[in-house]
Design a protein that fits this description.
2% strand, 2 strands, 13 helices, mainly alpha
Length: 332
């Protein structure tokens, strides 16, 4: 009995070690089962198809990269990276995409287009969750004409999507540092991941109602956030006229809003981060130090590669869990 127990422990430990060395995650479900080129045998052209379709779409519409990147984030932070954000609501259940924080997600049709192209070549093989993870990488990478990070594949699709789970999992733009740190920690992400992944705010836009309290009523007395650059605040006020404006939007990073780079950290040092959650990164000594390190472009890209790969393994379904959806917006 003792020999069998010892052997079992050895097997478990060896499995964890090998899994770690292969960057497959850990023995607690943190990405275990993902691997490079998962579809090498079952659908060899899968990743090439995703890239080609994504690049053709981005070439015609440069606003797609931040949309894909944000959609990937919002998927992974609720139930893990298993494509639940792609599901439509049904008459019996309101899905994630119809929750308030997700109402500004866009370009779901891009995923549908990519999925259709993949299905034509390899029906029932490639998951929507993997397509989303790959499309986010490929959309952002279009400007570089080479992949900016590795995407391990092998995710399967979830079958549950609940709007009620979104607000407690998606980090709000109004959070302070402590709340942000706790939110990321619950996903297995540390402070460096928090700072580095916030660099995704280098591209895309923010709606006025997500930050206008900083302009007009920061402490409830009709005041302005004193930590916000005064000149920048004046500019924002010229675009966001009041607290209730939920249609106007502005670039999250005003220097190069359609180019993925480390300029987010440049404006952060100038106290021109758009959201309270951006400004919060400067309120903690550790995170503030990391924001300064990210002023080195090479270090930012290197760290972003690691952090987004780590995020992409949150709560994944692998093996026989979940399903491979035929259509990304509904379960089979």
């Amino acid at each position: 009995m003792m020999m069998a127990t010892t052997s079992g422990r050895y097997t478990l430990i060896l499995g964890c070690v090998l899994g770690f060395l292969a960057l497959l995650g850990d023995c607690h479900g943190g990405g275990y089962g993902l691997r490079p080129n998962f579809y090498k045998e079952s659908c060899p052209m899968a990743e090439e198809i995703v890239k080609n379709v994504t690049w053709s779409i981005v070439a015609a519409n440069p606003t797609v990269p931040p949309r894909m990147l944000r959609m990937h984030f919002h998927d992974c932070f609720v139930r893990g990276c298993e494509g639940s954000v792609l599901l439509n609501s049904t008459k019996n259940s309101t899905a994630e995409k119809d929750a308030t924080p997700n109402l500004t997600l866009a370009s779901f049709d891009v995923i549908d287009t990519i999925k259709a192209a993949v299905e034509e070549k390899c029906p029932g093989i490639v998951s929507c969750a993997d397509i989303l993870a790959l499309a986010a990488r490929d959309a952002v990478s279009f400007q570089f004409k080479e992949p900016k990070w590795d995407v391990l594949t092998g995710r399967r699709d979830g079958t549950v999507s609940l709007a009620s789970e979104v607000s407690t999992n998606i980090p709000s733009p109004f959070l302070n540092f402590t709340a942000l740190e706790q939110n990321f920690d619950k996903k297995g992400l540390d402070v460096r991941d928090l700072v580095v992944l916030s660099g995704a705010h280098a591209i895309g836009v923010g709606h006025c109602n997500a930050f206008s309290v900083r302009l007009y009523n920061f402490s409830g007395k009709g005041d302005q956030d004193p930590s916000l650059n005064a000149t920048y605040a004046t500019l924002l006020k010229s675009q966001c006229k009041n607290l209730t404006d939920n249609t106007t939007f502005v670039p999250m990073e005003p220097l190069t809003p359609l180019t993925f780079n480390n300029n987010y950290y440049v404006i952060l040092q100038q106290h021109r981060g758009l959201f309270e959650s951006d400004a919060a990164l400067l309120t903690n000594a550790t995170s503030a130090k990391i924001t300064r390190e990210m002023l080195n472009s090479d270090e930012f890209f290197e760290d972003f590669r690691e952090s987004i790969k780590k995020m992409g393994a949150i709560g994944v379904l692998t093996g026989k869990s979940g399903e491979i959806r035929k259509v990304c917006s509904k379960v089979n």
